[in-house]
Amino acid sequence: MKKTLLFILFFASSLAVFAQTEPYEFKEYKRIDATSVKNQDQTGTCWAFSTTSFLESEALRIGKKNLDLSEMYIVRFIYRQKCENYVRREGTAQFGEGGLAHDAINAVAQYGIMPESEYPGRKDLSVPLNHSKLEKTLKNLCDDFVKLGREGKIPFDWLTSIDQALDAEFGKVPTKFTFNNVLFTPNSYRDYLGLKTDDYVTITSFTHHPFWSKFILEVPDNWSNQGMYNVPVSDLMRCAKNSIELGFTAAWDADVSNEGFSPKNGLAIMPATSWKDKDGIAQTSTFKLWEPETKVTQDLRQQLFDRHVTTDDHLMHIVGLLDEKHSGVYYVVKNSWGEISENKGFVYCSEAYMRQNTISFTVHKSAIPEDISRKLGLIPGEATIDNSKGGGKSDHTSDVQLMPGTTARPSKISPPQKVLMPAKKTPTKKASDN
Does the pLDDT at position 243 exceed 60? Predict the structure, then answer.
């Protein structure tokens, strides 16, 4: 009996060592059509790039072709709205380049959309995008208007000055344009593409608000105070996976300012051993050789969010699913930092990374599993709702599977130390990218 037990222990430990010295091995499970990888350059407009890419995939899904939509068309209108919001709130609102997926969708609903070729949003296409000077100009203008407003002296046409600054940066917005020999307005082009903005919802998972309700998530870039649906984390992941399996994509708001996100290596993981606890050999092998990952529960998600370890700092576009040999589910994510890494600008994200670092997903309503849609009131039908916060099924490591025998298997560990990166900017070198 003792010999048998020793053999079992030796065999198990040998498998563990063997598994951790093997490279990652991916098999494509599902890939949705998406446009080419773009570069947001030195701007904080990932929200526009990711959501525009999401809408391009939506148009491709329903049969449109040769798509390249203008991110800067959307950005221009949202900057104007942020200026108005800031001044009307007497300088107390969030101001900056950041935003969320619903901002872009709202802009398309109000103002339509244009092809990139008809509105590139910059005068010199050879110069990388950079809105730092524009942001300062707009902020100074708005602060002046806030002061004038407090004195009762703000001019009735004060937004004209904002429009002039935006026109100087982006160019004037045409009311009509000809594309493929057809005359469009921005709204008619949106309708031609079949983009129905009411079809998209944003889903999140945090326990400081009741599940199966809608609430305004308290992150700085939710300046427009739009609500999100709140579900347990396992159901959140079901929504993401179900979207891909049904042929839809998802816009992803996430934290990438941690040591598990490596754009250079095209990989995002939650290693069970933090970077500082690894020796030189282990650090060199990180992102190259498979290793166990953190077990991410609902409680851990909430703790990291409450401590501002998990923050809202980057948006990307989920376009596919992978089956990784050792741990199962991975997501194919299209980034907006150019064609970097061997993955040419795409990042392979483990389910453990998604579970811990997701702020929200924006998806088509039809991509949400039917039982979840009923509980959220998106479709009619009876539903049993547990309004308790956390616990239960939502605390499982994973219930997402791609195929029989492939399930993510993260290990228990405390969260890794946070490594700061500029929010929504071009990638900055981290220890993990050396």
Answer: yes
Cross-strand partners of 363: 201
Residue 103's identity, in one-letter code, is D
Question: What are residue 141's phi and psi, to 5 degrees?
Answer: -60, -45
Sequence-separated (6 or more) residues with CB below 8 Å from residue 181: none
Residue 71, classified by CB atoms within 10 Å of its CB into exposed (0-12), middle (13-18) or buried (19+), is: buried
Specify whether the backbone of 381 is left (phi greater than 0), alpha (psi in -120 to 50) or beta. Answer: left
Residues 6+ apart with CB under 8 A from 113: 55, 69, 70, 73, 74, 186, 189, 190, 193, 195
Report residue 306's pLDDT band, with 50, 70 and 90 as the boundaries: very high
Residue-level pLDDT at 385: 73
Tokens coding 6: 């020793």
DSSP 215-279: EE---TT-TT--EEEE--HHHHHHHHHHHHHTT--EEEEE---BTTEETTTTEE--BSS-GGGS-
| Rounded Cα distance, 310 and 379, in Å | 32
For residues 111 and 185, the answer to whether their CB atoms sit within 8 Å is no
- In angstroms, the CA 90 to CA 292 distance is 50
Model confidence over 408-432: pLDDT tens digits? 333 222 223 333 233 333 333 343 3
Name which residue leads in pLDDT, 100 or 430. Answer: 100
Q: In this structure, are residues 51 and 362 in contact, taking their beta carbons and an 8 Å threshold?
A: yes
CA atoms within 13 A on the CB side of 393: 14
- Bridge-partner residues for 333, per DSSP? 318, 347
Cα–Cα distance, 51 to 360 (Å, whole number): 13
Query: Which DSSP string do the residues of 265-308 spell out, in sequence order?
Result: TTEE--BSS-GGGS-HHHHHHTTTB---BB---HHHHHHHHHTT
Based on its alpha-carbon atoms, the radius of gyration of the chain, rounded to whole angstroms, reads: 23
- Note the CATH number of domain 24-433: 3.90.70.10
What is the sign of the dihedral through the CA atoms of 328, 332, 333 and 337?
positive
